[in-house]
Amino acid sequence: QVQLVESGGGLVQAGGSLRLSCAASGRTFSSYVMGWFRQAPGKERDFVAAATWSGGNTYYADSLKGRFTISRDNAKNTVYLQMNSLKPEDTAVYYCSAHTVLPSRHYWGQGTQVTVSS
41 preceded by cis ω (within 30°)? Predict the structure, then answer.
């Protein structure tokens, strides 16, 4: 089993920055893809960013490229989401995730609230 715990959310003014952290524990993670998703009230959960633990592969939602950066600290089993130039539209609950495909495994954190004021 994998346990994911997010932290770092809060209230920030438009144009500001936040860094979210996701601490992972339970197993080795070399075969996992780590991701960030977000969900605003009444909307679907949207993909934000993803990264592999090794290999340096990263992926972003097209609309977020250049503002959000996913990174990892493998020694700490922690993945980060640096969010810059925040907009009110970024307000959502942000979820950390871990995924494998063979076999298919999916784990989610409890989420952390990010609120961007105008």
Answer: no
Q: DSSP class of residue 75?
A: G
Helix (H, G, I), strand (E, B) or coil at 115: strand
Contact status, residue 108 vs residue 97, Cβ threshold 8 Å: yes
Q: Among 4, 12, 23, which Cα is nearest to 113's?
A: 12
Cα separation, 42 vs 85, in Å, equals 24
pLDDT in tens, 14-58: 999 999 999 999 776 678 899 999 999 999 999 999 998 877 799
Distance CA 2, CA 61 (A): 25
State how far the Cα of 55 lies from the Cα of 97, in Å rounded to an integer: 18
